[in-house]
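testing teh design pipeline on a random one, pls ignore if ur not involved
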């Protein structure tokens, strides 16, 4: 069996080190979804902030293990969405569990969201916490395969 070239060996070592640095940075970064126990307090704080800034509250139910949840959040930060999101909404991430959907189920149900339809799932609240809209059918559950324009359409529709 041929041995790898001495020239290739340092390149592969450098590539491996670069990947390790990226993974370490990701591990040190704050998770997108905080502890499931923070959900109620985070929503209450968002409602207070929304009341003082005349905004709506956008509650995103999801999890750190959920790829579609991360893709939805990335779409929130696209230029065409970020300005609309920051000017019209206070965003709250609600963690539904660390390895499966087993937390904040009753909270989601209180907003009319059936988590068995999948995450991410969104609810739009007024500043008093009253539900204006909630997803009932896992509308963004397949976000990684959806047109990113769907996020802008959603934000535009519910920002009024």
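output:
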């Amino acid at each position: 069996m041929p041995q790898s070239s001495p020239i290739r060996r340092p390149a592969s070592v450098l590539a491996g080190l670069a990947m390790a640095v990226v993974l370490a940075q990701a591990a040190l970064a704050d998770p997108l979804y905080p502890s499931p126990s923070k959900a109620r307090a985070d929503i209450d704080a968002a409602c207070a902030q929304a009341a003082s800034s005349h905004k709506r509250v956008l509650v995103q139910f999801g999890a750190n293990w959920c790829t579609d949840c991360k893709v939805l959040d990335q779409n929130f930060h696209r230029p065409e969405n970020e300005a609309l999101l920051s000017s019209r909404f206070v965003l709250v991430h609600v963690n539904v569990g660390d390895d499966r959907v087993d937390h904040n189920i009753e909270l989601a149900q209180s907003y009319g969201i059936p988590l068995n339809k999948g995450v991410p799932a969104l609810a739009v609240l007024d500043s008093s916490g009253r539900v204006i809209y909630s997803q009932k059918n896992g509308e963004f559950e397949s976000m990684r395969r959806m047109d990113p324009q769907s996020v802008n359409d959603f934000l535009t529709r519910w920002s009024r």
